[in-house]
Design goal:
Order of helices and strands: HHHHHHHHHHHHHHHH
Helix content: over 70%
Distance between the termini: 54 Å
Number of domains: 1
Number of helices: 16
Number of strands: 0
Radius of gyration: 22 Å
Strand content: under 5%
Largest sheet: none
Shape: globular
Structural class: mainly alpha
Length: about 450
């Protein structure tokens, strides 16, 4: 009996170590990448409440325009992880090239949407000043869509192979450059003119370009041995997994855009409080998200190797880690809200509203670890249709109706909107956990992995 318990503890420690080994570089990458967006908000916040509200509204539309491409390219991570699990290195490399071609094909049409920003923000109900500033920021960000998509494809390819170190180093380098450039381009110095919110967007684009350069250098040694043009069958394998995720991302970001539009009608103060709370959440929930993404990679590799028990073990281990992390985040929101909010230098009215929102955000953390890990594990298994139906359904049938009633019907503003967000998260955690408890998800992605031979060069 003692020997059995010892073996179980040893296996548990091994699995925790596996998840952690993959997760911590992903965490650093995410923290660094989020620092890019947060630094934009922090520095632009020094320009006033209106520019801060504009950058938050603009970021939402930017995510909407790039959501489908980023989601579809998520299929690269899933298909490559399964190829790695089967020890099929030639297929894994060929799938990486398909990700590059898809990134270019998707990015150019999205970049052409740059001139549409300002009119869209006016339609969303933003004030004229907010809409014009948001349109400027959006136009600069969206022209970099091919760069963003290429980063998504190469990051997914490297992580699926177990290399989370290279994306981490590239992301850190690019985001350090962004943070350095932000104050220089926003406020100007010496011969550099003050560009305001336009400078924040330009700094981000330059940082993203540097990230892509690092990813190309890191992936070139493996990819150059298997140079391959677009292959319909391999693109189809990525698309079968990635298209549902792309639809999911698009509709979820669209729901969040409607979410922001509701708050825009509540006034710039409520919108600014929402932006600050979102920026804080984007940073603080990243450790749990990194663990969840590591679980998705391990699940994909395990199922590719035909070992469903390993897939379940990866989920359970990651869920425990993520829940512990997110609980700590919630406690932080309760203990030091003023310190966190003070980084953005808000006016008193915005600070008071944000503090109330953080109380709701703290409650969200109690279930967010399980929800995120379960959804990432299902995605890693290729069960992307279920994930799409669940997340889209909860966003449009739960979050938006409830938030709309509380914001517009009851006049609760940003606080009512976040109550709707909390209920949505609870629904996701419950439904995804039930799915994980069954067995359908373990074979849901099998038809996305046909065994076509990739010819040797």
């Amino acid at each position: 009996m003692l020997a059995t318990r010892t073996r179980l503890r040893t296996r548990a420690h091994i699995w925790h170590a596996r998840v952690f080994t993959l997760a911590w570089p992903i965490l650093i990458s995410m923290l660094s990448y989020t620092a890019m967006t947060v630094s934009d908000s922090v520095f632009v916040g020094w320009l006033g409440t209106t520019p801060l509200a504009a950058i938050g509204l603009s970021a939402t539309l930017t995510y909407l325009a790039t959501a489908f491409g980023n989601g579809l390219l998520g299929g690269v991570r899933v298909t490559v992880a399964k190829a790695v699990g089967r020890s099929d290195s030639r297929r894994a490399a060929a799938l990486g090239w398909q990700g590059v071609w898809l990134a270019l094909g998707l990015g150019l049409p999205v970049a052409a949407l740059a001139p549409l920003g300002a009119s869209a923000f006016h339609w969303m109900g933003a004030s004229t000043e907010v809409a014009d500033l948001a349109g400027t920021y959006y136009s600069w960000r969206i022209v970099a869509a091919p760069v963003v998509f290429a980063c998504t494809a190469l990051t997914g390819w490297l992580q699926a192979r177990g290399d989370t170190w290279t994306p981490m180093m590239a992301t850190v380098a690019g985001n350090v450059a962004n943070i350095v450039l932000d104050p220089l381009l926003i406020f100007g110095a010496g011969p550099v003119p003050s560009l305001g919110i336009q400078g924040a967007a330009l700094a981000t684009v330059l940082g993203q370009t540097l990230i892509l350069a690092g990813l190309v250098l890191g992936s070139a040694p493996a990819l150059h041995r298997a140079v391959i043009g677009p292959r319909r069958d391999l693109v189809a394998a990525i698309a079968r997994v990635g298209v549902p995720t792309g639809v999911e991302y698009t509709l979820n970001v669209a729901s969040f855009t409607a979410f922001g539009a509701m708050l825009a009608q509540s006034g710039d103060t409520h919108l600014a409080a929402h932006v600050i709370a979102i920026r804080l959440l984007m940073v603080c929930f990243l450790p749990g998200l990194a663990v969840a993404q590591a679980a998705g990679v391990l699940v994909g590799q395990a199922l590719g190797a035909g070992q469903p028990r390993r897939a379940r073990r990866a989920f359970r281990t990651a869920a425990v880690q993520a829940t512990m992390i997110m609980t700590a985040v919630g406690i932080t929101f309760l203990v030091i809200p003023d310190v966190l909010i003070g980084v953005f230098s808000p006016i008193p009215e915005v600070a008071m509203l944000t503090k109330q929102v953080l109380l709701v955000a703290a409650a969200i953390q109690l279930v967010d670890g399980v929800a995120t890990t379960a959804l990432s594990s299902l995605t890693g298994a290729g069960d992307t249709r279920f994930v799409m139906l669940l997340t889209v359904g909860s966003a449009w049938l739960v979050k938006l109706p409830l938030a709309g009633f509380l914001v517009l019907g009851c006049g609760l503003g940003v606080l009512g909107a976040w109550v709707g967000l909390a209920v949505e998260c609870a629904v996701l955690a419950t439904a995804a956990s039930i799915r994980i408890g069954g067995s359908a998800w373990l074979t849901a992605g099998d038809d996305a992995e046909p065994e076509e031979a990739v010819p040797r060069r």
